[in-house]
């Protein structure tokens, strides 16, 4: 496993709570929860791989579901425990999405892989993590895999905010000069993909896609406008987002995508 010090360092210092304090930070969460809730049934067992500080795990455990979690970074596990409320039926172990051999096959109704694929750089590693998520899921169970999408990030962090120097990235070979496809490395922290990469990855697995969702669409690109909305307008924005986030003509420009499939 190529666990990089960059990854550990990033998550040791990342202020998740601050991001979620703003409305724009909640769109991806609200969207993902909405889809997860569609597939939960009474008594569902959930595994979250790469659970971070437990946003999803705790939300689901508080609804009464049985949640197990796996997380790579010790600091996140400590915060995960601090966030645990007494009534939750929840566990977390330190582990790696690439090797879930301590978890038996065909065990979970819902499996969440919302984060590890952001930090795996080769198709082999990504398929290994996806294969493990599929293995531990019950036949008929549903798997949620999240990705960071290059075009949303390039427009937002690159052209809009200047946090990414697009011309430099092209010079360094991190962006293809013709197609603008990303070519990330571990030191860049996030692996950026497009839908065609996800389709190619998934082509080897005998699963059925249920939804492919632009999880936040243009939200990050227009975060200032969204954070300035009053609650009625924000609710209307969410209605718009839910109504359009699976539209084929709008799928590519998003910062995160959610691939939802049945084993
Ligand atoms: C962007 S965070 C998402 C956390 C959580 N799933 C959520 O959506 O709020 C990604 C998480 O995946 C973890 N992670 C990254 N690579 C991993 C791996 N190979 N195995 C397990 N966890 C991993 C990171 O430490 C981090 O906590």
Description:
This protein is of the alpha/beta class and about 260 residues long. About 40% of the residues lie in helices and about 20% in strands. It contains eleven helices and eight strands. The protein has helices at about 5-15, 15-20, 25-40, 55-60, 75-80, 125-135, 150-160, 165-170, 195-200, 225, 230-245, and strands at about 45-50, 65-70, 90-95, 110-115, 135-150, 190-195, 210-215, 255-260. Strands 1, 2, 3, 4, 5, 6, 7 and 8 form an eight-stranded mixed beta sheet that branches. The chain is globular. The mean pLDDT is about 95. The structure holds S-adenosylmethionine (SAM). S-adenosylmethionine binds next to helix 4 and strand 2.
Structure described in brief:
This protein is α/β, with parallel strands linked by helices and 263 residues long. The protein has helices at 5-13, 16-20, 23-39, 55-62, 74-82, 123-135, 150-160, 166-171, 195-202, 223-227, 231-244; strands at 45-49, 66-71, 90-94, 108-113, 137-149, 192-193, 208-214, 256-262.
């Amino acid at each position: 496993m190529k666990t990089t010090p960059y990854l550990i360092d990033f998550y040791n210092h990342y202020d998740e709570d601050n991001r979620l304090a703003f409305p724009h930070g909640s769109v991806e969460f609200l969207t993902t929860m909405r889809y997860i809730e569609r597939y939960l049934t009474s008594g569902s067992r959930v595994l979250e791989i790469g659970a971070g500080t437990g946003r999803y795990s705790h939300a689901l455990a508080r609804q009464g579901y049985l949640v197990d979690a796996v997380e790579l970074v010790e600091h996140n596990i400590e915060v995960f425990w601090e966030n645990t409320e007494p009534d939750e039926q929840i566990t977390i172990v330190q582990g790696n999405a690439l090797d879930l051999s301590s978890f038996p096959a065909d065990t979970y109704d819902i499996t969440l892989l919302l984060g590890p694929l952001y930090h795996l750089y080769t198709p082999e590693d990504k398929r290994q993590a996806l294969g493990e998520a599929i293995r531990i899921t019950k036949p008929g169970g549903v798997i949620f895999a999240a990705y960071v999408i290059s075009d949303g990030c390039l427009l937002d962090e690159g052209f809009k905010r200047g946090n990414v120097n697009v011309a430099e990235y092209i010079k360094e070979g991190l962006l293809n000069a013709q197609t603008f496809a990303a070519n990330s490395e571990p030191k860049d922290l996030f692996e950026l993909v497009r839908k065609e990469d996800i389709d190619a990855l998934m082509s080897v697995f005998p699963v059925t896609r249920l939804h492919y969702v632009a999880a936040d669409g243009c939200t990050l690109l227009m975060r200032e406008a969204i954070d300035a909305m009053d609650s009625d307008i924000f609710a209307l924005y969410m209605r718009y987002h839910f109504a359009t986030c699976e539209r084929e003509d709008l799928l590519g420009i998003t910062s995160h995508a959610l691939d939802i499939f049945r084993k």
